Amino acid sequence: MTNSSPSERKSLFISHATPEDNPFVLWLGAKLSAMGYEVWADVMRLRGGSDWARELENALRHGAVKVLLVCTPAGLEKQGVRNEIEIATGLARRIGDNEFIIPLRLEPFDPPFRIAHAQYIDFSRSWANGLSELSELLQEKGLPRSAPGEMQGWLNSQTTGSARLFVKSEPMMSNWLAIKNNPDRIRYCEPPVGSPHDRFVVRPIAGQWCRTAAEF
């Protein structure tokens, strides 16, 4: 079977376990598509009645410019994922691309022999941070993409801001003036969209003042 040259390959092929990794793949595929990349993933492309095995293999062998391998312990044990790793490894040799497979670490995993040398991109701590790192790598490689338009500006603002957030404790300054007597109750503001409501209800004072503060 012949294989397309690197210049004819344009799609980012996402290899993953189905259905376990489908939510992540749909999220990642949407973000990469918004950046202007052509994305191929079975959960995004295949429909009822499709000869899914033939279409999947054809997309990998003839259309993939890079393979984004979603890595979880359970996913890497699936035969379908292992088959895709075997095909991708052979393609990497034929087209002369030692970085053809890009592992995406969704959970801690032990890499199979075929990808033991490959440096992964970490999505386990933050999907947004992982996307930011992946985006930088794809831009460095100069991979083909269409003009993303205004969506790219919005997406850049989202990923850039997310990369600056850190989960850590810090002091809360609530008032410059000393409070001699604590009130019986504190009323919280209306909760932002998506925030748990029980963090913003009226609460009685018990013990230290700082224990009534919502954690952000």
TrEMBL record:
<dbReference type="Pfam" id="PF13676">
    <property type="entry name" value="TIR_2"/>
</dbReference>
<feature type="domain" description="TIR">
    <location>
        <begin position="8"/>
        <end position="142"/>
    </location>
</feature>
<protein>
    <submittedName>
        <fullName>TIR domain-containing protein</fullName>
    </submittedName>
</protein>
<dbReference type="InterPro" id="IPR000157">
    <property type="entry name" value="TIR_dom"/>
</dbReference>
<dbReference type="GO" id="GO:0007165">
    <property type="term" value="P:signal transduction"/>
</dbReference>
<dbReference type="InterPro" id="IPR035897">
    <property type="entry name" value="Toll_tir_struct_dom_sf"/>
</dbReference>
